[in-house]
Amino acid sequence: MRFATKLAFVTASAMALAACGSSGGGSRDTVRVVGSSTVFPFAKKVSELSAQANPQFGAPILESTGSGGGFKLFCSGLGPDTPDVTNASRRIKASELETCVDNGVTDVVELQVGLDGIAFASAQGGIMMNLTPKMVYEALAASPYGGEQTNETWADVDPSLPAEPILVYGPPSSSGTRDALKELVLEAGCKTNEDMKALKESDEDKYDQVCTEVRSDGKYVDQAENDNLIVQKISNSPKSIGVFGYSYLEENAGKVQGLPMNGVEPTYENISSFAYPGARPLFMYVKKAHLDSIPGLREYVAEWPKHWDKEGELAKIGLVASPEDVRAANLTKTTEFSTLTADDLK
User: Fold this and answer.
1) Best CA proximity match to 124, nearest among 255, 280, 212
2) Which of 117, 170, 200, 325 suits a disulfide with 246, CB 3.0-4.6 Å?
3) Could you read off the pLDDT of 77-107 as tens digits, one per residue?
4) Residue ranges of domains in the chain, CATH in brackets
5) Mean pLDDT of the chain
């Protein structure tokens, strides 16, 4: 974007914000939050607590769009027609931050709100397996190690697994959980093959396709941005497996059971120590330019650290607390609002 064009865009955005900040909030007087379905239940809880603590403001409006969809909305510009906050179950990409900057969203505050794990689960009393990233990759990859996908049952993948048809319900491509599945599990399984390590050096695009593209023949069925729907699917299909955030596993413990990965159970302790292979950080991103223009935004952000500790309200619904030093650093960000740079993502 040329400088003159970008300057005009930022000026227009600033005028929109000024209008938003006048007359008690202009066209919007409530906080608007979009993003990850995994972070959604935690954001919803904080929204409720913030509304109770700050009754002078309207309750924040939340929308579950997926991490990728949230970044698109968040980075579309400034002003009352755009979100103030987006949640994500993965870190923002350098390309997404660049889009933000090009659209005038130049000051973005990144907060790590806690940890989560990509849980593999089945119905209570249903199929049980001790999985590894290699097994999951070979079961779900569109082209395992660049070859034809011929695995129809779990026993085809490994004789130690049940001779049951592969059927996995998981997140769609717009989901941060899907991104984490690719990075933490599928790619980890793919890299057990020495030829794939060499492929990454010679042709990274081909490597990404081979190592992270999921099969589309009905063995992997993606669902909308709704982890509860995956829980429902596997509850009604005892020989199927679901992939979703750990918090949904804990919330639905009476319906589903976690499957171990590398012999490690998906538990609070194993995720907090990163012993479980699917452990990952969760984030929220805030527009600094909206802090003084959207009523209640500062208060909403300030509510998060009150509840993200090990004994906090968010732990009660499945959030795994970040390490103490990480929580302290992010607490500081909720008052100083230091902004993210491209160098931070290198």
Assistant:
1) 255
2) 117
3) 999 999 999 999 999 999 999 999 999 999 9
4) 3-115+281-345 (3.40.190.10), 117-279 (3.40.190.10)
5) 90
